[in-house]
Amino acid sequence: MSRGLRRVLHLIPSLDVGGAERQLRYLCPHLESFGWEPSVGYLHGGPNLTPLARAGIVAHELSCGHYDPRLFLAIARLIRERRPLLVQTWLPLMDIVGGLTARALRLPWVVSERTLPSAYPRLLKMRLRNRLVRGAAAVVSNSAEADAWWAARLAPRVLRRVVQNSIPVDEIEGASPADLGSYGLSGSRPLVAFVGRVDEGKNVDRVLDVLARVTREGPAEALFCGDGILLRSVRERIAREGLADRIVAPGFVSAVPSVLKRAAVFLSLSRYEGMPNAVMEAAAAGCPIVLSDIPAHRQVVSDAEARFVPTEDVVAASDAVHECLRDRAAALARAAGARVRARSWSLQTAARRYADLYEALTPEASRDPRGE
Hints:
Layout: E1 6-14, H1 19-31, E2 36-44, H2 49-54, E3 58-61, H3 70-82, E4 86-90, H4 92-104, E5 109-113, H5 124-133, E6 138-141, H6 144-151, E7 159-162, H7 169-173, E8 191-195, H8 204-217, E9 221-225, H9 231-240, E10 247-251, H10 256-262, E11 265-268, H11 277-285, E12 289-292, H12 295-298, E13 307-309, H13 314-326, H14 328-342, H15 347-361
Parallel strand pairs: 1-2, 1-4, 2-3, 4-5, 5-6, 6-7, 8-9, 8-11, 9-10, 11-12, 12-13
Protein backbone atom coordinates (compact mmCIF):
# COMPACT_ATOMS: atom_id res chain seq x y z
CA MET A 1 0.00 0.00 0.00
CA SER A 2 1.17 3.53 -0.76
CA ARG A 3 2.01 6.15 1.87
CA GLY A 4 -0.62 8.79 2.51
CA LEU A 5 -3.63 6.46 2.35
CA ARG A 6 -6.15 6.75 5.15
CA ARG A 7 -6.82 3.53 7.01
CA VAL A 8 -10.04 1.61 7.53
CA LEU A 9 -10.21 -1.63 9.52
CA HIS A 10 -12.74 -4.29 8.50
CA LEU A 11 -13.75 -6.90 11.08
CA ILE A 12 -15.43 -10.17 10.04
CA PRO A 13 -15.81 -13.54 11.81
CA SER A 14 -14.26 -15.58 9.00
CA LEU A 15 -13.10 -15.45 5.41
CA ASP A 16 -15.05 -18.56 4.51
CA VAL A 17 -17.45 -19.09 1.59
CA GLY A 18 -20.35 -16.74 2.37
CA GLY A 19 -21.57 -13.75 0.42
CA ALA A 20 -20.40 -11.17 2.97
CA GLU A 21 -16.92 -12.67 2.96
CA ARG A 22 -16.81 -12.57 -0.82
CA GLN A 23 -18.01 -8.95 -0.96
CA LEU A 24 -15.31 -7.89 1.49
CA ARG A 25 -12.70 -9.67 -0.60
CA TYR A 26 -13.96 -7.91 -3.73
CA LEU A 27 -14.11 -4.49 -2.07
CA CYS A 28 -10.76 -4.17 -0.31
CA PRO A 29 -8.40 -4.11 -3.33
CA HIS A 30 -10.42 -1.30 -4.94
CA LEU A 31 -10.47 1.09 -1.98
CA GLU A 32 -6.86 2.17 -2.49
CA SER A 33 -7.69 4.00 -5.72
CA PHE A 34 -10.07 6.19 -3.69
CA GLY A 35 -7.50 7.04 -1.03
CA TRP A 36 -8.19 4.36 1.58
CA GLU A 37 -5.94 1.58 2.88
CA PRO A 38 -8.02 -1.36 4.13
CA SER A 39 -6.95 -4.08 6.52
CA VAL A 40 -8.96 -7.02 7.83
CA GLY A 41 -9.29 -8.64 11.24
CA TYR A 42 -10.81 -12.13 11.30
CA LEU A 43 -11.20 -15.17 13.55
CA HIS A 44 -11.01 -17.97 10.97
CA GLY A 45 -9.56 -18.12 7.48
CA GLY A 46 -11.06 -19.69 4.40
CA PRO A 47 -11.09 -19.48 0.61
CA ASN A 48 -11.35 -15.68 0.61
CA LEU A 49 -8.14 -15.19 2.57
CA THR A 50 -5.72 -16.09 -0.23
CA PRO A 51 -7.17 -13.60 -2.76
CA LEU A 52 -6.84 -10.84 -0.16
CA ALA A 53 -3.21 -11.73 0.44
CA ARG A 54 -2.51 -11.79 -3.30
CA ALA A 55 -3.98 -8.30 -3.56
CA GLY A 56 -1.63 -7.05 -0.84
CA ILE A 57 -4.33 -6.57 1.81
CA VAL A 58 -3.05 -6.90 5.38
CA ALA A 59 -5.16 -9.47 7.22
CA HIS A 60 -4.78 -10.27 10.93
CA GLU A 61 -5.99 -13.48 12.53
CA LEU A 62 -7.51 -12.79 15.94
CA SER A 63 -6.58 -15.83 18.00
CA CYS A 64 -9.80 -16.09 19.98
CA GLY A 65 -12.99 -18.10 19.90
CA HIS A 66 -16.33 -16.61 18.92
CA TYR A 67 -17.47 -16.17 22.51
CA ASP A 68 -14.07 -15.56 24.09
CA PRO A 69 -14.15 -12.33 26.14
CA ARG A 70 -10.52 -11.78 25.15
CA LEU A 71 -11.79 -10.96 21.64
CA PHE A 72 -12.53 -7.41 22.81
CA LEU A 73 -8.89 -7.00 23.87
CA ALA A 74 -7.59 -8.57 20.65
CA ILE A 75 -9.62 -6.14 18.54
CA ALA A 76 -8.54 -3.20 20.70
CA ARG A 77 -4.87 -4.19 20.22
CA LEU A 78 -5.39 -4.46 16.48
CA ILE A 79 -6.99 -1.02 16.38
CA ARG A 80 -4.08 0.48 18.29
CA GLU A 81 -1.63 -1.24 15.95
CA ARG A 82 -3.36 -0.29 12.70
CA ARG A 83 -4.58 3.15 13.88
CA PRO A 84 -7.56 3.27 11.50
CA LEU A 85 -9.76 6.33 11.12
CA LEU A 86 -12.85 4.13 11.29
CA VAL A 87 -13.98 0.53 11.75
CA GLN A 88 -16.42 -1.40 9.55
CA THR A 89 -18.01 -4.63 10.82
CA TRP A 90 -19.49 -7.53 8.87
CA LEU A 91 -21.97 -10.08 10.26
CA PRO A 92 -23.60 -10.14 13.70
CA LEU A 93 -20.72 -11.36 15.86
CA MET A 94 -18.43 -8.55 14.75
CA ASP A 95 -21.30 -6.07 14.80
CA ILE A 96 -21.51 -6.76 18.53
CA VAL A 97 -17.88 -7.20 19.59
CA GLY A 98 -16.22 -4.99 16.99
CA GLY A 99 -18.90 -2.33 17.32
CA LEU A 100 -18.61 -2.14 21.09
CA THR A 101 -14.81 -1.94 20.86
CA ALA A 102 -14.87 0.80 18.22
CA ARG A 103 -17.32 2.83 20.29
CA ALA A 104 -15.21 2.38 23.43
CA LEU A 105 -12.20 3.73 21.52
CA ARG A 106 -14.29 6.58 20.06
CA LEU A 107 -13.87 5.54 16.44
CA PRO A 108 -16.64 5.89 13.84
CA TRP A 109 -18.31 2.52 13.36
CA VAL A 110 -19.87 1.41 10.07
CA VAL A 111 -22.25 -1.58 10.05
CA SER A 112 -22.60 -3.76 6.93
CA GLU A 113 -26.22 -4.95 6.73
CA ARG A 114 -26.24 -8.05 4.52
CA THR A 115 -29.87 -9.13 4.67
CA LEU A 116 -33.27 -7.99 5.89
CA PRO A 117 -32.91 -7.75 9.70
CA SER A 118 -36.41 -9.16 10.29
CA ALA A 119 -35.24 -12.39 8.62
CA TYR A 120 -32.60 -13.03 11.30
CA PRO A 121 -33.41 -15.71 13.89
CA ARG A 122 -35.19 -14.23 16.90
CA LEU A 123 -32.32 -14.87 19.28
CA LEU A 124 -31.06 -12.78 22.19
CA LYS A 125 -27.83 -12.20 20.24
CA MET A 126 -29.73 -10.69 17.34
CA ARG A 127 -31.85 -8.46 19.59
CA LEU A 128 -28.65 -7.23 21.22
CA ARG A 129 -27.04 -6.68 17.84
CA ASN A 130 -29.95 -4.67 16.47
CA ARG A 131 -30.05 -2.51 19.58
CA LEU A 132 -26.30 -1.82 19.43
CA VAL A 133 -26.48 -0.86 15.76
CA ARG A 134 -28.47 2.21 16.80
CA GLY A 135 -25.21 3.58 18.20
CA ALA A 136 -23.28 3.18 14.95
CA ALA A 137 -22.06 6.11 12.87
CA ALA A 138 -23.48 4.59 9.67
CA VAL A 139 -25.37 1.57 8.36
CA VAL A 140 -24.69 0.36 4.82
CA SER A 141 -27.40 -1.96 3.50
CA ASN A 142 -27.11 -3.96 0.30
CA SER A 143 -30.83 -3.64 -0.43
CA ALA A 144 -33.45 -0.89 -0.34
CA GLU A 145 -35.67 -3.18 1.72
CA ALA A 146 -33.10 -3.47 4.53
CA ASP A 147 -32.41 0.25 4.38
CA ALA A 148 -36.13 0.96 4.81
CA TRP A 149 -36.22 -1.35 7.84
CA TRP A 150 -33.40 0.62 9.47
CA ALA A 151 -34.84 4.00 8.45
CA ALA A 152 -37.73 3.39 10.84
CA ARG A 153 -35.39 2.58 13.74
CA LEU A 154 -32.31 4.80 13.51
CA ALA A 155 -31.82 8.35 14.72
CA PRO A 156 -31.22 10.97 12.02
CA ARG A 157 -27.57 11.32 13.10
CA VAL A 158 -26.84 7.74 11.85
CA LEU A 159 -25.92 7.92 8.18
CA ARG A 160 -27.60 5.37 5.93
CA ARG A 161 -26.46 4.22 2.53
CA VAL A 162 -27.50 1.53 0.08
CA VAL A 163 -24.52 -0.03 -1.67
CA GLN A 164 -25.48 -2.92 -3.89
CA ASN A 165 -23.22 -5.93 -4.04
CA SER A 166 -20.59 -5.89 -6.76
CA ILE A 167 -19.00 -8.64 -8.80
CA PRO A 168 -15.94 -9.03 -11.07
CA VAL A 169 -17.97 -8.91 -14.26
CA ASP A 170 -15.01 -9.15 -16.67
CA GLU A 171 -13.63 -12.18 -14.82
CA ILE A 172 -16.98 -13.95 -14.93
CA GLU A 173 -17.58 -13.18 -18.60
CA GLY A 174 -14.10 -14.45 -19.47
CA ALA A 175 -14.39 -17.76 -17.60
CA SER A 176 -14.24 -21.00 -19.56
CA PRO A 177 -17.16 -23.46 -19.18
CA ALA A 178 -16.52 -26.11 -16.55
CA ASP A 179 -15.54 -29.69 -17.36
CA LEU A 180 -18.42 -31.56 -15.74
CA GLY A 181 -16.49 -34.81 -15.83
CA SER A 182 -14.34 -33.46 -12.99
CA TYR A 183 -17.51 -33.38 -10.86
CA GLY A 184 -18.58 -36.90 -11.81
CA LEU A 185 -21.29 -35.85 -14.26
CA SER A 186 -21.60 -36.96 -17.86
CA GLY A 187 -21.62 -33.51 -19.42
CA SER A 188 -23.87 -34.86 -22.16
CA ARG A 189 -27.09 -33.54 -20.61
CA PRO A 190 -28.20 -29.95 -19.88
CA LEU A 191 -26.93 -28.75 -16.51
CA VAL A 192 -29.08 -27.16 -13.80
CA ALA A 193 -26.96 -25.36 -11.18
CA PHE A 194 -27.59 -24.24 -7.62
CA VAL A 195 -24.93 -22.08 -5.98
CA GLY A 196 -25.23 -20.85 -2.42
CA ARG A 197 -24.94 -21.39 1.30
CA VAL A 198 -26.51 -24.72 2.24
CA ASP A 199 -28.96 -23.73 4.96
CA GLU A 200 -32.66 -23.15 5.64
CA GLY A 201 -32.64 -19.63 4.26
CA LYS A 202 -31.68 -20.99 0.84
CA ASN A 203 -34.65 -23.38 0.97
CA VAL A 204 -32.43 -26.31 0.06
CA ASP A 205 -35.11 -28.97 0.58
CA ARG A 206 -37.31 -27.39 -2.09
CA VAL A 207 -34.28 -26.91 -4.36
CA LEU A 208 -33.58 -30.64 -4.07
CA ASP A 209 -37.24 -31.44 -4.72
CA VAL A 210 -37.02 -29.49 -7.98
CA LEU A 211 -33.67 -30.96 -9.04
CA ALA A 212 -34.93 -34.49 -8.35
CA ARG A 213 -38.09 -33.88 -10.35
CA VAL A 214 -36.34 -32.22 -13.29
CA THR A 215 -33.58 -34.82 -13.60
CA ARG A 216 -36.10 -37.66 -13.42
CA GLU A 217 -38.51 -36.19 -15.94
CA GLY A 218 -36.04 -35.27 -18.66
CA PRO A 219 -32.46 -35.42 -19.87
CA ALA A 220 -30.83 -33.15 -17.30
CA GLU A 221 -28.24 -33.31 -14.55
CA ALA A 222 -27.48 -30.95 -11.66
CA LEU A 223 -24.67 -29.46 -9.60
CA PHE A 224 -25.55 -28.44 -6.05
CA CYS A 225 -22.64 -26.10 -5.23
CA GLY A 226 -22.05 -24.75 -1.76
CA ASP A 227 -21.17 -25.53 1.83
CA GLY A 228 -23.15 -25.19 5.03
CA ILE A 229 -24.80 -26.94 7.94
CA LEU A 230 -27.22 -28.92 5.74
CA LEU A 231 -24.67 -30.23 3.23
CA ARG A 232 -24.44 -33.64 4.87
CA SER A 233 -28.22 -34.11 4.81
CA VAL A 234 -28.31 -33.00 1.16
CA ARG A 235 -25.75 -35.63 0.22
CA GLU A 236 -27.53 -38.30 2.24
CA ARG A 237 -30.81 -37.56 0.50
CA ILE A 238 -29.21 -37.67 -2.95
CA ALA A 239 -27.77 -41.11 -2.15
CA ARG A 240 -30.97 -42.37 -0.49
CA GLU A 241 -33.13 -41.44 -3.48
CA GLY A 242 -30.76 -42.95 -6.03
CA LEU A 243 -29.91 -39.63 -7.67
CA ALA A 244 -26.12 -39.73 -7.41
CA ASP A 245 -25.67 -40.24 -11.16
CA ARG A 246 -27.69 -37.10 -11.91
CA ILE A 247 -27.17 -34.72 -8.96
CA VAL A 248 -23.76 -34.02 -7.42
CA ALA A 249 -23.14 -31.91 -4.30
CA PRO A 250 -19.38 -31.23 -4.29
CA GLY A 251 -19.46 -28.68 -1.45
CA PHE A 252 -17.54 -25.46 -1.90
CA VAL A 253 -16.67 -24.78 -5.53
CA SER A 254 -14.04 -22.14 -6.29
CA ALA A 255 -14.72 -22.02 -10.04
CA VAL A 256 -18.33 -20.81 -9.79
CA PRO A 257 -18.11 -18.65 -12.94
CA SER A 258 -17.05 -21.70 -14.95
CA VAL A 259 -19.98 -23.71 -13.60
CA LEU A 260 -22.39 -20.90 -14.47
CA LYS A 261 -20.94 -20.55 -17.96
CA ARG A 262 -21.59 -24.28 -18.45
CA ALA A 263 -25.09 -24.36 -16.89
CA ALA A 264 -28.28 -24.30 -18.94
CA VAL A 265 -30.28 -23.01 -15.94
CA PHE A 266 -29.43 -21.41 -12.60
CA LEU A 267 -31.95 -22.12 -9.83
CA SER A 268 -32.44 -20.27 -6.53
CA LEU A 269 -35.49 -20.66 -4.28
CA SER A 270 -34.27 -18.60 -1.31
CA ARG A 271 -36.78 -17.60 1.33
CA TYR A 272 -34.92 -14.33 1.93
CA GLU A 273 -31.74 -12.63 0.74
CA GLY A 274 -29.82 -9.39 0.99
CA MET A 275 -28.52 -8.89 -2.52
CA PRO A 276 -27.68 -12.40 -3.77
CA ASN A 277 -24.17 -12.77 -5.18
CA ALA A 278 -24.90 -16.03 -6.98
CA VAL A 279 -27.85 -14.56 -8.89
CA MET A 280 -25.71 -11.61 -9.95
CA GLU A 281 -22.95 -13.96 -11.08
CA ALA A 282 -25.41 -16.08 -13.06
CA ALA A 283 -26.62 -12.93 -14.80
CA ALA A 284 -23.05 -11.90 -15.67
CA ALA A 285 -22.36 -15.39 -16.99
CA GLY A 286 -25.34 -15.22 -19.34
CA CYS A 287 -27.03 -18.19 -17.68
CA PRO A 288 -30.87 -18.44 -17.81
CA ILE A 289 -32.30 -17.90 -14.33
CA VAL A 290 -35.23 -19.32 -12.30
CA LEU A 291 -35.85 -17.59 -8.97
CA SER A 292 -38.19 -17.54 -6.00
CA ASP A 293 -40.41 -14.49 -6.14
CA ILE A 294 -38.97 -12.44 -3.27
CA PRO A 295 -38.11 -8.71 -3.23
CA ALA A 296 -34.35 -9.34 -3.04
CA HIS A 297 -34.43 -11.30 -6.30
CA ARG A 298 -36.55 -8.69 -8.05
CA GLN A 299 -34.05 -5.97 -7.18
CA VAL A 300 -31.44 -7.89 -9.20
CA VAL A 301 -33.39 -8.91 -12.33
CA SER A 302 -36.82 -8.30 -13.85
CA ASP A 303 -39.55 -10.45 -15.38
CA ALA A 304 -37.95 -9.81 -18.76
CA GLU A 305 -34.67 -11.30 -17.53
CA ALA A 306 -35.66 -14.29 -15.39
CA ARG A 307 -38.50 -16.63 -14.49
CA PHE A 308 -40.04 -16.04 -11.04
CA VAL A 309 -41.97 -18.72 -9.12
CA PRO A 310 -43.58 -18.99 -5.66
CA THR A 311 -40.94 -19.83 -3.08
CA GLU A 312 -42.37 -23.19 -1.96
CA ASP A 313 -44.03 -24.28 -5.22
CA VAL A 314 -42.00 -27.24 -6.48
CA VAL A 315 -44.25 -27.87 -9.48
CA ALA A 316 -44.07 -24.25 -10.69
CA ALA A 317 -40.30 -24.16 -10.26
CA SER A 318 -39.86 -27.48 -12.07
CA ASP A 319 -42.06 -26.26 -14.92
CA ALA A 320 -40.01 -23.06 -15.20
CA VAL A 321 -36.76 -25.05 -15.40
CA HIS A 322 -38.26 -27.36 -18.03
CA GLU A 323 -39.38 -24.30 -20.01
CA CYS A 324 -35.83 -22.93 -19.99
CA LEU A 325 -34.50 -26.26 -21.23
CA ARG A 326 -37.18 -26.67 -23.86
CA ASP A 327 -37.31 -23.12 -25.29
CA ARG A 328 -33.62 -22.25 -25.41
CA ALA A 329 -34.06 -19.21 -27.64
CA ALA A 330 -36.41 -17.49 -25.21
CA ALA A 331 -34.31 -18.47 -22.20
CA LEU A 332 -31.13 -17.12 -23.76
CA ALA A 333 -32.88 -13.90 -24.76
CA ARG A 334 -33.82 -13.31 -21.12
CA ALA A 335 -30.29 -14.17 -20.06
CA ALA A 336 -28.86 -11.67 -22.55
CA GLY A 337 -30.93 -8.92 -20.94
CA ALA A 338 -29.70 -9.87 -17.47
CA ARG A 339 -26.12 -9.87 -18.75
CA VAL A 340 -26.50 -6.27 -19.94
CA ARG A 341 -27.81 -5.28 -16.50
CA ALA A 342 -24.83 -7.00 -14.85
CA ARG A 343 -22.41 -4.52 -16.41
CA SER A 344 -23.61 -1.92 -13.87
CA TRP A 345 -22.47 -4.00 -10.87
CA SER A 346 -18.82 -2.98 -11.04
CA LEU A 347 -16.39 -3.26 -8.15
CA GLN A 348 -15.19 0.31 -8.71
CA THR A 349 -18.71 1.70 -8.28
CA ALA A 350 -19.14 0.00 -4.90
CA ALA A 351 -15.68 1.05 -3.71
CA ARG A 352 -16.40 4.67 -4.66
CA ARG A 353 -19.63 4.69 -2.66
CA TYR A 354 -17.91 3.28 0.43
CA ALA A 355 -15.06 5.79 0.07
CA ASP A 356 -17.57 8.65 -0.15
CA LEU A 357 -19.19 7.44 3.08
CA TYR A 358 -15.82 7.18 4.83
CA GLU A 359 -15.06 10.77 3.78
CA ALA A 360 -18.38 11.95 5.22
CA LEU A 361 -17.60 10.27 8.55
CA THR A 362 -14.01 11.54 8.79
CA PRO A 363 -13.93 15.14 7.47
CA GLU A 364 -10.58 15.61 9.22
CA ALA A 365 -9.04 12.62 7.42
CA SER A 366 -7.05 14.60 4.86
CA ARG A 367 -4.90 16.09 7.60
CA ASP A 368 -4.79 13.13 10.00
CA PRO A 369 -1.27 11.66 10.29
CA ARG A 370 -2.66 8.19 11.07
CA GLY A 371 -3.44 7.87 7.36
CA GLU A 372 0.22 7.68 6.50
